[in-house]
Design brief:
heterodimer; A: 386 residues; alpha+beta; ten-stranded mixed sheet; two-stranded antiparallel ribbon; 12 helices; B: 224 residues; alpha/beta; five-stranded parallel sheet; globular
Chain lengths: 386, 224
């Protein structure tokens, strides 16, 4: 197979042309392969997370927004539901109901405030420390811990959620009590706290601080028996063992805000019964995240097919480019082929030489495409696309 | 013993606007003999070499190369016979530009899978033709004379029974041309090859044992 030797020597001598052609082919191969792999991986992750939460009850509005907020911790809908919704489904036999508030953030990450049974229902365990047991405890998702460098025992404050409203209470400083095991889900990018912590941050409940001195500006109202002071002065920003027992609210418990109520059940019947309770409700809706995600993925697949068509055109263009390049190369090599003919090279030698060179370029391109695809997949497979 | 190269009653006609006819009643070249083929430009010297090497087929007559009849073979067999029995030094400089001098010399041996065995012979020939110092250079880094001598080494490498040279001094100045031809003929005689040199160079003709002259081209008769 002296053709192999000639093909290798030609490629070595024309290294730039060979490399350029190989890169063209590699990119044409790797773009569709990478995009398909990423979409597949993304779809699998989405579906797995959606399957883990069988039913979500939340404010009426966009089903997609509700699913994305309650399962993937994206921006929650503007509207909330009240805790009374939890009471309406709590009595469904065989259903585990979990209150959830995703209204706040800490260090730019979503602060997911949930009932304690959420962790058991989703199989979330602490890799370090413990789960959030009391108000003011915070547990970090694995990636949050890695990226922020926060450790168990460190303080972490909620982000100020309303900059220009002085009546809004100041951020609450929580204490990191644990770090979750890495799950490859949205939980890795979130910070978890108890549902009561959300009400404390939202101002629905509070603790009182001792103070000896009051400036005149601090008093906003005064009667014979009581003094009302600025909310920011009145409420403490840190939960301590001394003030935790003084936490209280003035609203009726049923009116406390929630982003959603998650319903877990091992059978379909409790889920159907729970969903049925909100049939026709103008303020509350029940959604099945898996159905919503399937619908979203069908849209993604439609977009992917358009993308595939574009890639097919690109591939056709590349094939034409290769044909053109090979034809031009063959023309430039007329003298070389004449020499081979004059020394009596077999008649199949010329086409087999050109074919081998295409095989060589393709082999280089496949190796390059594999490297590009692997690098792109590693870089982007964990990126949240929602 | 029959001559390695013989032509008997060979004629060749090329129809069309540049119609052309060549007639060679009889030609034999013995082993170790050098025959100069002379004639004016267009007299058919290169065509005759093409008929012998099997790149062209005669209209009539018989061409024997190394004891085999070339004109009755199919394309594939003619190529094989050319590969095995004929060394060709072309009129134009004929080296492959991405191979080194040594690789160019070994080209034919590589095609036959005998490159390793032929390496020493290649070096020996390169020394004889005084191009040992350019064996590892690409043709672009050789002088014209060096390139021509590398091509001669390639033609003689496998000790073919027949060597065909088409204007071997065409691209060289007088001194270099004569030196290259002299060295080539010396090597070919040593190997006992039958050498046919097409040339119109007066300095090459005296180096031959015999001279065959082609007359002015005969205009071909157009078919009625």
């Amino acid at each position: 197979m002296w053709q192999v030797g000639l093909a290798l020597r030609y490629a070595r001598r024309n290294v730039w042309q060979t490399s350029l052609l190989s890169v063209c082919i590699a990119v044409t191969i790797s773009i569709p392969v990478t995009s398909r792999l990423l979409v597949q991986s993304f779809e699998q992750r989405m579906e797995r997370q959606a399957r883990d939460v069988p039913l979500v009850i939340g404010p009426r509005g966009s089903r997609f927004d509700l699913a994305l907020a309650s399962v993937f911790f994206r921006q929650p809908p503007d509207r909330t539901i009240t805790r009374s919704v939890l009471d309406r489904v709590a009595s469904v036999e065989g259903a585990e109901v979990v209150p959830m508030s995703t209204l706040f953030t800490t260090r730019g990450r979503r602060l997911v405030c949930v009932g304690f049974s959420y962790f058991e229902a989703l199989g979330l365990n602490a890799a370090e420390g413990s789960l959030p047991l009391i108000v003011g405890d915070a547990v970090l998702g694995a990636r949050v811990a890695r990226e922020t460098g926060l450790r168990v025992g460190d303080p972490v404050a909620s982000d100020r959620h309303e900059l220009f409203d002085l009546s809004v209470p100041p951020p609450i400083t929580m204490s990191v009590v644990g770090v979750l095991k890495e799950t490859g889900t949205s939980a890795d990018d979130a910070v978890f706290a108890s549902i009561e912590t959300a009400w404390l941050i939202g101002g629905q409940s509070h603790v009182h601080a001792e103070t000896d001195e009051l400036e005149a500006d601090d008093v906003i109202a005064q009667t014979d028996g009581a003094v009302a002071v600025r909310p920011t002065l009145e409420m403490s920003s840190t939960i301590t063992s001394e003030n935790i027992l003084t936490i209280h609210g003035h609203d009726a418990p049923g009116l406390l805000p929630l982003s959603a109520v998650l319903v877990f059940a091992s059978e379909a019947k409790p889920l159907t019964l729970a969903a049925a309770r909100f049939e026709g409700d103008v303020n509350v809706q029940a959604i099945r995240p898996q159905t919503v995600v399937d619908e979203m993925m069908r849209t993604v697949v439609r977009v992917q097919s358009v993308f595939d068509a574009i890639i097919a055109l690109l591939a056709a263009g590349t094939v034409l480019l290769i044909v053109l390049t090979t034809t031009l190369a063959a023309r430039l090599r007329t003298a070389e082929f004449a020499i081979l003919d004059s020394v009596g090279a077999p008649s199949f030698f010329r086409p087999s030489l050109l074919l081998l060179q295409l095989v060589l370029v393709s082999a280089i391109a496949i190796v390059l495409a594999f490297a590009i695809t692997t690098a792109a997949f590693v870089a982007f497979s964990t990126v949240d696309l929602v | 013993m029959s001559a390695p190269l013989s032509l008997d009653g060979v004629s060749f006609q090329r129809p069309g606007p540049d119609a052309f006819a060549l007639v060679m009643p009889m030609l034999e070249v013995q082993s170790g003999e050098v025959v100069a083929l002379v004639g004016p430009s267009g007299s058919g010297k290169s065509t005759l070499l093409g008929l012998i090497s099997g790149e062209l087929l005669p209209s009539a007559g018989i061409v024997h190369v190394a004891g085999r009849r070339m004109d009755t073979l199919d394309e594939s067999a003619r190529r094989a016979l050319r590969r095995e029995s004929i060394g060709v030094v072309a009129q134009t400089l004929s080296l492959i530009d991405y191979l080194t001098g040594l690789e160019n010399i070994l080209l034919l041996a590589m095609l036959q899978g005998t490159a390793r065995a032929a390496r020493d012979r290649a070096r020996e020939l390169a020394g004889l033709l005084e191009v040992g110092h350019v064996l590892h250079r690409p043709p672009a880094k050789m002088s014209q004379g060096e390139r021509q001598r590398i091509a001669i080494c390639r033609a003689l490498l496998l000790k073919p029974p027949v060597v065909l040279c088409d204007e071997p001094t065409g691209n060289l100045d007088a001194a270099r041309g004569e030196l290259a031809t002299r060295l080539m003929l010396q090597a070919a005689r040593q190997d006992g090859a039958a050498v046919l040199v097409a040339t119109h160079d007066d300095r090459v003709v005296p180096l031959a044992d015999r001279v065959v002259s082609l007359t002015e081209p005969v205009p071909a008769k157009e078919p009625v």
